[in-house]
C-alpha cells in the first residue's frame, strides 16, 4: 500500500504560478510511475501529466504543454507539478496517482491516488 499526500494548492491570479507536491509513504515510490490529474466542477477527471519511475520520460496533456512541468525526487519520495502561466480554466481539484506502469497511470488507472488539493485561478 502506498499513501499519497498532497499539501499545497491554493488561490492564484491568472498568469501566476504554483507548485504542487505529492509525497509518498513508502520507499518503493521509486518503482512507480506517477501522474497528475484534475477535476473541475461539473466535469470529468482529466489527465494532466505523467512521469516514468526514473524521471526520464514525461508526457503532458495538450492543454498544459509548455506551461506545466512534472518532476520527481525519488530520494524525497515526492513528485512535483510546476504550474506556470496559470489560466482560470486550470481551476480544479488536482490529484496525484501512482502505478507500476506509466501507460496505466496515463489511462487514469493508477493503483494509488492522493486525496486531492484545490487550485483556484482567479481572472
The count of DSSP E runs of length 2 or more, i.e. the number of strands, is 11
Order of helices and strands: EEEEEEEEEHEE
The termini sit apart by: 40 Å
Main sheet overview: 7 strands, mixed
Structural class by secondary-structure content: mainly beta
Q: What's the shape?
A: globular
What Rg is obtained from the alpha carbons, in whole angstroms? 13 Å
Helix count from the secondary structure assignment: 1
**What fraction, in percent, of the residue positions are helical?**
under 10%
β-strand percent reads over 45%
The pLDDT mean sits at 95
Question: Segments where pLDDT lies below 50 for 5+ residues?
Answer: none
Briefly say what this structure is.
This protein has one helix and eleven strands. The protein has 123 residues and is mainly beta.
Features:
mainly beta, 123 residues, 7-stranded mixed beta sheet
How would you describe the overall organization of this protein?
- The chain is mainly β.
- Helix content is 4%, strand content 46%.
- Strands 2, 4, 5, 6, 9, 10 and 11 form a 7-stranded mixed beta sheet that branches.
Lay out the secondary structure:
Blueprint: E1 4-5, E2 10-13, E3 18-24, E4 33-39, E5 46-51, E6 58-60, E7 68-73, E8 78-83, E9 92-99, H1 102-106, E10 112-113, E11 117-122
Amino acid at each position: 500500500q502506498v499513501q499519497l499526500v498532497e499539501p499545497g494548492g491554493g488561490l492564484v491570479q491568472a498568469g501566476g504560478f504554483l507548485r504542487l507536491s505529492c509525497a509518498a509513504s513508502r520507499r518503493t515510490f521509486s518503482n512507480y510511475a506517477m501522474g497528475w490529474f484534475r477535476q473541475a466542477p461539473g466535469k470529468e477527471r482529466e489527465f494532466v501529466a505523467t512521469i516514468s519511475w526514473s524521471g526520464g520520460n514525461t508526457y503532458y496533456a495538450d492543454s498544459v504543454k509548455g506551461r506545466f512541468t512534472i518532476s520527481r525526487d525519488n530520494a524525497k519520495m515526492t513528485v512535483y507539478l510546476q504550474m506556470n502561466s496559470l489560466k482560470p480554466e486550470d481551476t480544479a481539484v488536482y490529484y496525484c496517482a501512482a502505478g507500476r506502469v506509466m501507460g496505466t497511470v496515463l489511462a487514469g488507472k493508477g493503483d494509488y491516488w492522493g486525496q486531492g488539493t484545490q487550485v483556484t485561478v482567479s481572472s
